# Entry
Amino acid sequence: MMSRNKEKLVVEVVRAHNLMPKDGEGSSSPFVEVEFENQRLRTQVKYKDLNPVWNEKLVFHVADVADIPYRSVEVNIYNERKSGNNRNFLGKVRVSGSSIAKEGSEILQLYALDKRSLFSHIRGEISLKLYLTTKDLTNDLHLHQGNGTEPNSSTSSGVNNSAINTGEIKPIVITNEPGPTIIPHPHHVSSGSGFNGFGSGGGSNHEFSLKETSPHLGGGLSKKDKTSSTYDLVEQMLYLYVRVIRARELSINSGGEIMADVKLGNYRGITKRGSSSNPEWDQVFAFSKDCIQSSVVEIFVREREKDDFLGRIWFDLSEIPKRVPPDSQLAPQWYRMEDKKGEKGKGGEVMVSVWFGTQADEAFAEAWHSKAANVPFDGLCSVKSKVYLSPRLWYLRVTIIEAQDLVPGDKGASMMRFPEVSAKAQVGNQVLRTRIASATSKRGLSNPFWNEDMMFVVAEPFEDYLMVSVEDRIGTGRDEVLGRVLVPVTTIERRNDDKPVVSKWFSLEMHCNLGTDSKMMTTPFGSRIHLRLSLDGGYHVLDESTMYSSDMRPTEKQLWKSHIGVLEMGILGASGLMPMKMKEGKGSTTDAYCIAKYGQKWVRTRTVVDSLMPKWNEQYTWEVFDPCTVVTVGVFDNCHLDKNTTILGMGARDSRIGKVRIRLSTLESDRVYTHSYPLLMLHPTGVKKMGELHLAIRFSLANLANVLHMYIWPVLPKMHYVQPLSVSQVENLRYQATNVMAARLSRAEPPLGREVVDYMLDNDSHIWSMRRSKANFFRLVSVLSGVIAMGRSVELIRSWQKPVYSVLFLLLFLLLVWYPELILPFILLYLSFLGLWRYRGRPRHPVHMDIRLSHAEILYPDELDEEFDTFPTTQSAEMVRMRYDRLRSVAGRIQTVVGDLATQGERLQALLSWRDPRATFLFVLLCLVAAVGFYAVPCRVVVALWGLYEFRPPKFRSKLPSPALSFFRRLPTKADSLL
# Structure
């Protein structure tokens, strides 16, 4: 039987994940130091790795195994600095000895890293395995003579002699071979060192950064032409325009359909079919200068499904004129065609016009482009650029007050129970219900009272009806309709302020038919309902999140103010796009187009077919009413061009490629910003760069004084503060507004799909995401970092490590105490100088998507799978249980923090609550003495003495807590009453 003192404790350090960067370059060089019973041991250093894998065993001697449950193992992770012997703290874990198992029953555990102090910035997890063994491990070890800090040792195992020994017992280090990857606890599936190659180092990747470009805006002309004032934010592109209008005097015997072909080299455009007698097409074809491979352009007129042409004309490109807007359009002319024999007398005539122009030409938007040569006729509409105006949305307020003289459908059944009467309001697909007016008497059924407000979203032109029905709950899931009323939305009164509209009584009918032919309704007895209806135009209908909304104006146009500036955007092109679909099995391709949304104006560029580096060079303009708004530009892949095209991983929907948000208030006035923005998308495999979008932006202000005045105005219209809406109500109405917006835009031609509207309006931002929760938490930590840094500075001064600074601060403190009227001017003057000093380092580029801020540089696969899961979930019960347990773990930490904050607040309340009579007596007595003291001694003297006491040198201080802090910590809290 082996004695207990021969047993050893083995701490197997497997790996860490998502550590905090500490070297100033976006990464860390971590190592682990383990301490047990005055024995310390450290692992190797993993240089520049935020997801290090060690797989090392640290072996400690155990003096008494019986004391193991009463001991603890402390695991600290540090970052090794390049210079000096200092190190950065990355996190710690304290493992109780009661959780240490015997060898053979050990399991791999994942521990979240804890802070060393309240002000530490810590993140990440570490995987450990702790167990007791009786094996003599030293017999199988190969001793290392070095210090054991080489990153990748070539030996398979060995002893690290660099352990920091503070006792008599010498610990042992065992370094295992790398071996296979060990999978951590199922709650967290680690991605190893660099998940799928995305952000393995956690540093600032140049690939994901914003880049400034130098395009030749305005065509690079030395002299401004007539289009420079309107198309100076794009590169001028030269096109050959051919407008084919009609034909006549064709020599045709059959009654077949006639069409025209326009041919330029290898590119060919075909018109729609016309009648055989006098065919008329009126179509425009645009051939890019890059596609011109011939010196002539030919126009053929032929019958459908026949190769022989009826007539032909051609133009020499060197003789075609150039048109520059605002010149008038070139007048079309009749041209005599030659037949297939070359004779001009029998081929008939065709009316055409041919000219060279740029994308500033009026015919550009409606033209068939040479890049879309293989697009069928039914897909041509979705290729052209369009401008959409989103419908004007209104809030419909419905106040259901009461009902009178209701008659139950089954009087016998109603006498056997208490009736439960409620009112239901419906507008389109939006349904809301009042509370149940439970009745204990006959009057409760016949005259229920609610007085409840309901809000709906409706769009102009008003095509919906408001239907209010009174129902009686007669069983589970069974409601009996006692009467309905149908009100057209067009007849409802509009209001711009909070003045109440006049309420009205409406007769309840049993049958309501929306048809025009059947209007018969049966009226029971004379039941009626009391309603107050209004269309509230003083609100702004929120269809976007308020954090990046593009419009804050109220619905009613009478309340609009004049615009304060103009936003001009040139959508130049994209580069390096990812292929999105397979085309006829011949390879991958992308048919990309852009959507830009600001206010009520949505613009859609033309679709550049089959190109991973599309060039749009289209310029658009918006009026700006508020500088603190955001313009959103999204890039999509068009899936409606060819039915034979296979979408990679998607259905018949336009695929998302990425989007860019730009806040106008961060732009300087009248400056042209030309940048390439990375298009970042979060996929189930991690964050991917889908390409780069090239934009040119200019924000021009009409009057700087008006813009500065805007900063003191409320963000939302007046009605949002006079009659505010609840948070849940705003979220529900935003969802309804998105549905109404998507339904109306889908009726345009070409339609904007629901997937496009949802992506542009961030309709899925309310879904739970562990990644977003972490990102928001670290945003909060970053906000508080300034206060934390100030506290550290004060603590540094109190420590007298730099006596000169401490003396200067103390003198300044005494000066401000003696002349308190200087405190506020001094603070404001300091803030002014600080702002002026930071002017040199102001941002010179627009903001863009930040993967580090979004917490997307290193992700758990399971967290990504959870974020992309549908709602409600489609995962198995075991997976849902695992995620629920993880959520409980996170919520438990939040619960502990909230409980600690509540404890401190309850201790403040306990000062005067007499829950602890002795503590309250001491506090009251101290307040009386302090009142007399403050009356007798000037306040500035008291503050000066307090400052001198607090900033006394450390050798005059006690290491014990102050009496006031000790007294506060002894106060009772309500935590004693918690179960």
User: Anything to note?
Assistant: Residues 1-5, 139-204, 514-520 have pLDDT under 50 and may be disordered.
